[in-house]
Write a structure and sequence with these properties.
By secondary structure, the chain is of the alpha/beta class. The chain has 2 domains: 113 residues, no CATH class; 179 residues, Rossmann fold, CATH 3.40.50.150. The strands form 3 sheets. Strands 2, 3, 4, 5, 6, 7, 13 and 14 form an 8-stranded mixed β-sheet that branches. It has a 4-stranded mixed β-sheet with strand order 1-12-9-8. A two-stranded antiparallel sheet has the order 10-11. Helix 2 runs antiparallel to helix 10. It starts with 10 loop residues before the first helix and ends with a strand. It binds S-adenosylmethionine (SAM).
């Protein structure tokens, strides 16, 4: 597995991000990318199986319906790069169509080493592919993966699930421009996005009755305890998911049940008032036109959008202009 120097989840960077996020004046926050340690990745995999969480099934349904069109629409790329691949279940629906008769290099990129190991193990039986897992963040990983491009060969980049919705809109726009800068004319980018739907359907996916999303959210504090020696008592926090209509996003928070002081390994302390929250994730929801509206200024042309009929969800096939 490729581990470039300066791997993003160094303890010092994790601690600096936790310290900065929890000492912010006003709303305290933590980056959602830190959800995915080994336990967090396993919890996410379980969440995707929940009846309330329709998003992963919608993404898979669209791939099962349309992945066979990819060779005609995207040609036969020499490299498939998946940003935030997780366990790679979705790539399994795509790669066999592309690898039939055309050997390809598949580069799953993820911060989670556990997810990448599962991905490598589960996709190893597909013929004609070489798997090169890259344990790094999206953009650095894409830059490393593009070195595997064959002369004259194209890249197909995948950004599936609803990870684009974890960025604030201007950051999403800047991210797409950076992805574009790392691609070349002729390359193709398949971008998934969860769409706006009735509030109760959207919220149920983040407030499941088994409490898996609550465990996933609280595991962020547990991870800070494990890796940074902090003293969070998880019983003193409550998972909360809410829909912010004007911003078109689900927000996940951890609400402090009491006034408390937490020490992070004696290096710094965090004061929380009773009822105060730590904001852990945003999941922006889109209208189909809004996906095109952020992709086109970034230098892509939207060739086609596929929308699931059961769970409003879109995949946009974007061609580099
Ligand atoms: C919500 S999961 C989605 C997994 C998969 N793409 C899917 O659609 O089911 C997000 C994945 O992206 C990874 N991830 C989150 N932030 C990342 C970052 N900045 N760079 C690379 N991977 C990241 C996580 O470790 C996790 O495996």
């Amino acid at each position: 597995m490729m581990r470039p120097p300066g791997h993003p989840i160094s303890v010092s960077e994790f601690e600096a991000d936790v310290r900065a996020g929890l000492s912010k004046p006003g709303q305290k926050e933590l980056y959602s990318k830190y959800f995915y340690d080994d336990l967090g990745s396993a919890l996410f995999e379980a969440i995707t199986l929940l009846p309330e969480y329709g998003l992963t099934r919608a993404d898979l349904r669209l791939l099962r319906e349309h992945a066979h069109e990819l060779p005609e629409r995207a040609g036969y790329p020499s490299v498939v790069v998946e940003l935030g691949s997780g366990s790679g279940d979705k790539a399994r629906e795509i790669i066999p169509y592309l690898a039939a008769g055309h050997p390809i290099t598949y580069c799953p990129i993820d911060l989670s080493g556990a997810a990448l190991s599962r991905c490598q193990r589960d996709l190893d039986d597909i013929r004609n592919i070489k798997i090169v897992p890259i344990e790094d963040s999206y953009v650095e990983g894409l830059a490393s993966a593009s070195k595997f491009r064959k002369p004259g060969g194209a890249i197909l980049a995948l950004f599936l699930g609803s990870s684009i919705g974890n960025f604030e809109p201007p950051v999403a726009q800047a991210f797409l421009s950076t992805v574009r800068e790392n691609l070349q004319p002729g390359d193709v980018f398949l971008l998934s996005a969860d769409l706006v739907k009735p509030f109760d359907r959207m919220l149920a996916g983040y407030n499941d009755s088994l409490g898996l999303t609550s465990a996933f959210n609280l595991n962020l504090l547990a991870r800070i305890n494990r890796e940074l020696g902090a003293s969070f008592d998880l019983n003193k926090f409550q998972h909360e998911a809410r829909y912010n209509e004007s911003e078109q996003r689900i927000e996940m928070h951890l609400r402090s049940r009491t006034e408390q002081t937490i020490s992070v390994n004696g290096n710094f302390t965090v004061e929380l008032q009773e009822g105060e929250t730590i904001w852990t994730e945003s999941s922006y929801k889109f209208l189909p036109d809004q996906v095109r509206a952020i992709a086109e200024p970034a230098g892509f042309r939207c060739e086609i959008q596929w929308v699931d009929s059961e769970w409003p969800f879109a995949q946009s096939l974007l061609r580099v202009r």
